[in-house]
Amino acid sequence: MAATPHRAAPAPRDLADLPYAHRLDVFAEELERDGDHESVHFDGGGFVGLDGGGTVFLECAFSAVAFEGGRYRRARFNDVWAHQTRWVGVDLAETQWTDCEAGAGLLAGVELHGSRLRRVVFHQCKFDSVNLRGAELRDVTFADCLLRDVDFSGARLAGVAFPGTTLERVRFDNVTVDRADLSGAAALGIASGLDALRGATISGLQLVELAPALAVTLGLEVKD
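Structure (tokenized):
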């Protein structure tokens, strides 16, 4: 757990920076189960209580869109960009996210258990009571985010980094770690699962801050 330089997060992109920006058409259809949306711009508005399970989003952009309730199980998000998008009380279990970027967004009360995230970057997003149990995260970066009451129990974290991110009451019970870098996190509020973080990278200062919790986890009795 020696201190090492943490991985820098890629800079957030604007909508115009996307390589497929010139191909985007404004969304003017119905969002329904097993739908197929390619090169679509979802600009504003919201979706309440819909069943969008199995839907595919390919090279799509979301700008200030609100999702409230609803089920999108097994939906696929490939090369998707989202800005100021809100997901509240949404079921996103077993979804797949590949080459995606989200900025200034909110995920609250969201089910993401069993999901698969690969090459995904979150910039300045707020996660509140998000269930990521049993998820697989590979090359995922949480940059300058807030993770509060997030549950990673049983998840696989490979190449995951948290630069500038604040963790509050986050659970890591029984996670599998491969190149997880916590050294750049702004705060490490870990509720449980410290023993499962073997192989993760933290800073020397974080080691000192975690020492009391580590002692409890290891059953050490500390006497002055």
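The first helix runs from residue 204 to 218. The longest strand covers residues 96-103.
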